[in-house]
């Protein structure tokens, strides 16, 4: 009987964690400020520029519609801290992919969480749940 109660309690607790995680809250944070911080502290090397959709970039598009979808541990961390960290992971992936393809910019960047495209000229979207934070972006590689 004790084992059944223990198993039931564990299942209910796990169900609560899953339910809490499923209720991601969406946050908007300033994209350019986050990029500038990442370049300033050396996370990004500055050789690749990043442009949100609707901002002027110019250049020639090399590849369209590249997607990055990154997650990080957000447990007991603020949304701002978790989202900044996971955005950096997404930008590092874009930077490395751009350089490998002879591009020096990622343009037309949109938030792409759960394949839902959200355009902004100033912010990116980040989903923050109880234990995980995630950023998904879609953009084009370009040579400026």
UniProtKB/TrEMBL annotation:
Taxonomic superkingdom: Bacteria
Keywords: Signal
Signal sequence extent: 1-22
Name of the featured protein: Excinuclease
């Amino acid at each position: 009987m004790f084992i059944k109660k223990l198993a039931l309690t564990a299942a209910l607790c796990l169900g609560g964690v899953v339910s809490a995680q499923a209720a991601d809250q969406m946050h908007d944070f300033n994209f350019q400020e986050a990029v500038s911080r990442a370049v300033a502290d050396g996370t990004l090397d500055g050789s690749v520029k990043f442009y949100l959709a609707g901002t002027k970039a110019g250049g020639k598009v090399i590849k369209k519609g590249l997607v990055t979808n990154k997650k990080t541990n957000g447990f007991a961390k603020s949304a701002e801290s978790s989202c900044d960290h996971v955005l950096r992971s997404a930008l590092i992936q874009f930077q490395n992919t751009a350089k490998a393809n002879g591009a020096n910019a990622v343009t037309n960047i949109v938030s792409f969480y759960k394949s839902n495209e959200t355009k902004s000229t100033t912010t990116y979207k980040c989903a923050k749940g109880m234990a995980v934070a995630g950023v998904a972006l879609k953009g084009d590689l370009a040579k400026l």
